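thoughts on these tokens:
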Amino acid sequence: MSDTTLPIGSVESFDERHPKLWLETLHDWVVTVDHKKIGLMYVMYALLFLVVAGIEALLMRVQLAVPHNDFLSPETYNRLFTMHGTTMVFLMGMPLIAGIANYLVPLMIGARDMAFPRLNAFSFWLTAFGGLLLYYSFVGGQGLYGAGSAPDVAWFAYAPLTEKAFSPGHATDYWALAIILTGFGSVGSAVNIIATTISMRCRGMTLFRMPLLVWLNLVVACLILVTITPLTAAQIMLEIDRYLGGHFFDTQAGGSAVIWIHFFWIFGHPEVYVLVLPAFAIVNEVIPVFSRKAIFGYPAMVAASVGIGFISLGVWAHHMFTVGMTSFSNAFFTISTQLVGIPTGIKIFNWLATMWGGKVRFATPMLFCTGFLFQFLAAGLTGIMLSIAPWDWQLHNSYFVVAHFHYVLVGAIVFCVFAGFYYWYPKVTGRMLNETLGKWHFWLFLIGFHVTFDFMHIPGLLGMPRQIYTYEPGRGWEIWNMIVSLGGVIQAIAVLIFVCNMVWSYFRGPIAGADPWDAWTLEWTTTSPPPLYNFASDPIVSSRRPLWDLKHPEDPDASYE
């Protein structure tokens, strides 16, 4: 018997060596600087908080299902309202797009890793700590000796509600500090995306040969650098107000609550495009592959993406039509908001033109992209309605607005993210997701989405405010709120099917192979999952479809520019 061989039945063979494997694996993930592992940690973190935010939303919908409901107290409802919005934007949306970009951008440009691997890891852990800090407010929100509670100032935290006189305790401080930390994490990730895209492309990968997913994440990274800054400044000023007597937002001491609204929405509306442009990026990769056609109008798509990013920086005050701006300001922001619809419309027509005449295969990723096209068009139309100041005056802070932005956040972004999961899950795990469960997921989620957010417009038109925890009967809101709440339950069932599909397929799904979709971008040239080094040799590309060039060298369309 060799020195390294353990006797059969040895206690050490299981009780000591087996836990060591788990500890080593955990240690590898905690200290990793590999962009793929960091990307997966971002995604898993985002999915965890998606479940948390979904539970918070369901609890609110149970409260609003019938009038005079006492399922939740007013204080609890306000806290759930605040935590749901904050979680979905800062702890689900931002980490999710960072995770997808972290995983895919280096693979798509033929790089071995991100430009700054340690900064990449630092950015993730800052973001993760920010989320934990926010939810620690449930324990420590009221101070050292009081009972804990979450912040209750809504996710936009309008001043002067957030001043010390109106928000005693530490719950609001946890909220502000969490936003600051996640903001620093987002800035670090954005710097990495920009540096990687600009300086680490493989030979032949010119800017106009980059996949559109890389282009859109580059635009988003630039937007993050511009928009996180005023948000972080606002949080710092808020903390100075609360503890050092700064009075930036204290109207009784000469401050201005409107300044807070400007600072927040200078971030808050471009943030919509920070989240939706990566969703567009997923659609740009999925639709061509499942239509068996190259994307229609690549240069126009790039120009439209840059145009959306630029115009989005000048539309924030359409959230402020009711605060008393001048008629000139109202007119300017009405026009700028409608102007952003032009490059967005270009994208919709290009996606439809890509599908037109193609050999469309309605696998699960394509189903989610198809649902997205209709829903994003509807969201854009209601957005144009709300961009008109007189119309917005009538519906501001009503459930019509809630329905509109959920049409964007869920109907567009979440549908695209699900498409991305079904498309790239084989690359990440080496196994295919189950198509039958995928179609059940799609159809249930589609039905639940429309039952919820189509009918949510109606109580908004009937005057239902967005920040009430209960309501009187006889106003015509009862039946619509019940329908909306039932739609939320259907969506929850669909998400449960998706989670079961991911877990089951990870262990039992069919082996995917390197290129299960017959795609053409560089990430499909390596194994599934990719090795630590991504590529055994540096790729060399000569067109926008490098893998297609390798598979079909005789195809004259393979080398198109």
